[in-house]
Each structure stands twice: as C-alpha cells, then as structure tokens.
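Re: the request from the purification team.
They wanted to know what the chain is likely to look like in 3D before they choose a buffer screen. I agreed to run a prediction and write the result into the notebook, where they can find it.
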Amino acid sequence: MNIDGRDFVIKRIEALTGSYVAFKLSSKLLPLGLGGKLSENGIQLQNTATVEMSRAEFTELQMECLKVCFEEVGGKQIPVLNDNGSFRANDLEDDVKTVLTLTVQAVVFNAQSFFEGNLLEKLASKFSAMSHTDAQT
C-alpha cells in the first residue's frame, strides 16, 4: 500500500489477537449496522449514530493493528512499531493521517471476512477517499 509516496505492507494478525480485535469491533460496529437495518423497517434505536470507545480501548486496538504494519525501505520491511510500542518507522509519531490509514487498513485486511456485508469496506473506502491513499495490500 502506498501512502504519500511511502510503501507499507500489512500482514495478518495472529488468530487469537485477530479474534479479540474482531470481537471488540463487532461490539462497537454491530449497533450501527443493526440500527440501519431496523430503521429501514420502521424501528428506531437510540444512539446508533456514534461509536463510543475509550482512549484506552482505541489505543489497544490501534497498537494491535500497527504491530502487523511494516514500511518497505531499501528492500527491507521495517516494523512500524518497536516492541515497546514506540514508532520505529521514520516520522510517524507526528503523522496522524498515515497512522490512522494504516490502522483502518489493517482492520479491513484482517477482520473483513469476520464481518458480514461490506461495512468495513465502506468505512475504509470513505477514509481512503478522504486521505488519498492507494489502499491495495
């Protein structure tokens, strides 16, 4: 995947961690999808327009996603994160767009088959359009 002229590779999350990420996301995203389906049938759910996630929850999920992201530099794949969670790849600590794009694309790449329909694809395409990336993995 190319983001602003930088090449990144997203790999698979190991199955137990991937299951946890998918479970956490489904608990946050299911009400959104369910709310839309029920609204089509005349049933309204309250508070389905927002997803609430604590900073700790988001950081935990984001770190798991970024652990499987690598930047290709000089023919080598450099992990985006060090083992301690700090950024290893150059200049990412201040690059919100790239970090968020990698996070979203790692979720889509690893959890897409878990979710029915195209919810993750739709979210990723909206974000990709906003961030102008080549989101092929």
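For the purification team: The longest strand covers residues 6-10.
Please add any questions underneath this entry.
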